[in-house]
Write a structure and sequence with these properties.
The chain is of the alpha/beta class. It has 12 helices and 13 strands. Helix 4 crosses helix 10 and helix 4 runs parallel beside helix 11.
Length: 360
């Protein structure tokens, strides 16, 4: 692309005042006037010569600053997700600012894919919000640094959440039968819907759901008429045993935490906590929070499985996803022992692993 210009390493001074900046190793700015590409790739940590992993999202960001901050925050989370899943790879994330007005999606993604080549394998990516597998197939013509054609990260993520849910239900209620518990799911998109099916297959019937996609809601109610639908702004207020945030970030904030009427929070959304103090607010209320980057790591595990073997090794994948439950149980028991939030424990454990891996 003749007009493409790529800033390989942006000055860290740009980010020093951003609370999401965690001394990230690299931030790349991929920009192309012709295709209207404006994208940021944030690499939080690198483990030796291994690539860092993180999906790419295409969103209507209100500003470049908002896009950069999202990339910074999500890339850090990916480092912790990888560490707690027992994976040796660093964390990264990419965001593409959806262009205003008319644009060619094919040209935009072609330009982005060509830009990835300039990173020379430091970053491997797949699909996040706003992108599909068909987009990957298109980009594959222009770059090899993609993964996610074979794996089904949505199903793997939902499976990991269900394993975490089992641990949390046993921890709080000593009863893991879904039929004897109530649930609320915020967001029934790709992962939320997979989780809903797992709950229903497990016998759950007392379920509330909410989503901005009215068509999706109608389809769900038609298939499962016992599902109770509520507005997205009150889904967290439902009196249930388990609240599952499966939409975008920030679901657990100063306002919503005060309004929760549940005993357990476990979901697929990334960065569910609005800020660091949110975890203690939950802990003080006696609500067990399953750290998002532990519970929702199944998707990353499946992608790494595909990357390592060039195909899906289901036995290994199942084993690694089951390990999510082992890690979460360890975190919850340590939380109880030290009388602090599970998130505090997981952050400490994750940081220790990241420092060890990054020093290699």
């Amino acid at each position: 692309m003749k007009k493409q210009k790529i800033s390989i390493k942006l000055d860290k001074k740009i980010f020093n005042l951003m609370p999401e900046f965690d001394n990230h190793l690299l931030v790349f700015h991929l920009q192309d006037d012709e295709s209207k590409l404006d994208s940021y790739v944030a690499i939080h940590r690198i483990n030796g010569s291994l690539p860092s992993f993180g999906a790419t999202r295409l969103l209507d960001y209100s500003s470049n600053e908002e896009a950069i901050r999202d990339a910074l925050k999500l890339s850090k989370l990916m480092s912790y997700k990888s560490a707690m899943a027992g994976l040796p790879y660093g964390g990264a994330k990419a965001v593409i600012i959806r262009p205003k007005g008319d644009f060619s999606r094919e040209k935009l993604l072609e330009s982005y894919a060509r830009g990835l080549n300039e990173l020379k394998g430091k970053f491997i990516t797949g699909t996040d919000v706003g992108l599909t597998v068909s987009d990957l197939v298109h980009m594959k013509q222009y770059t090899k640094y993609l993964v996610g054609y074979l794996a089904n990260p949505e199903k793997a993520t939902a499976l990991g959440i269900s394993k975490s849910l089992d641990i949390a239900l046993d921890y709080v209620y000593k009863d893991t039968e879904y039929s004897r518990h109530s649930f609320s799911i915020q967001g029934v998109g790709k992962v939320g819907f997979e989780l809903l099916k797992i709950l229903i297959d497990g016998g759950a019937r007392d379920i509330y759901v909410a989503d901005i996609d009215k068509k999706k809601i109608k389809e769900i109610v038609k298939e499962y008429p016992f599902i109770k639908v509520v507005n997205t702004n009150i889904i967290h207020k439902q009196e249930v045993d388990v609240y599952c945030p499966c939409a975008l970030s920030g679901a657990l904030n100063t306002k919503t935490i005060k309004e929760l009427k549940c005993k357990i929070v476990v979901g697929s959304a990334n960065n569910q906590l609005e800020c660091a103090s949110s975890c203690e607010d939950l802990h003080k209320r006696g609500i067990v929070y399953c750290p998002d980057y532990i519970a929702n790591s199944g998707g990353l595990i499946s992608i790494i499985n595909e990357y390592r073997y060039g195909k899906l090794k289901n036995i290994q994948l199942t084993k690694n996803i089951k390990n999510i439950a082992i890690i979460l149980k360890k975190v919850l028991l340590e939380s109880k022992k030290k009388m602090v939030s599970p998130f505090v424990i997981s952050e400490s454990m994750g940081l220790s692993i990241i420092k060890k891996n990054s020093s290699k």
